Amino acid sequence: MRGIELRPETAEDEPFLRRLFVSTRIDEFSAAGLPPQAIEMLLAQQYDLQRRHYRAAFLDADWSIVERRGQAVGRLYVAREMAGRRIVDIAILPEAKGQGIGGMLIDRVLAEAGRAGRPVHLHVRPENRARRLYLRKGFVETGVEGGDITMTWQA
Fold it and tell me: Which domains does the chain show, CATH number per domain?
């Protein structure tokens, strides 16, 4: 896809990353019927917890910002593990979804892993619409872990 680039995440991306996280989780938290201030606080805590977890669990990962024509529209986190590659997280702003960006990012990861002869692993929530995209890209469901479906693509 033309105009889509990846660049390393920097400290200056923090406000964007927080906004992106909120945009991907706000519906889930709003459905609980909590006051807006409580939702805001919970989302801030969840963002901080997720960020610390990712950094501790995936030491050898690429933390990338997805840009379209120079504007940040998402993030792609890919860990390089002994057993292959792991898509840790793909997140796209709501206004940029449905435009093929996620599929293009997956294709990039699969192409790189294919050149290296490595499989690609990921976890996805059963209700996540991206699950269908992963299946179309050749991932197979390999199990369930912590309520998430585990999936693998073989080079």
Answer: 4-153 (3.40.630.30)
CA distance 146 to 125: 10
CB 101 within 8 A of CB 67: no
pTM for this entry: 0.92
Cα(152)–Cα(44) distance, integer angstroms: 31
DSSP classification of residue 32: T
Beta-strand ranges (E) seen in the chain are 4-8, 61-68, 71-81, 84-92, 120-124, 140-145, 148-153
Please write the tens of the pLDDT for every residue from 42-99. Answer: 999 999 999 999 999 999 999 999 999 999 999 999 999 888 999 999 999 999 999 9
The Cα–Cα gap between 118 and 114 comes to 6
Query: Under DSSP, is residue 149 helix (H, G, I), strand (E, B) or coil?
Result: strand
Is residue 76 within 8 A of residue 83, CB to CB? The reply is no
Sign of CA dihedral 111, 98, 147, 28: positive
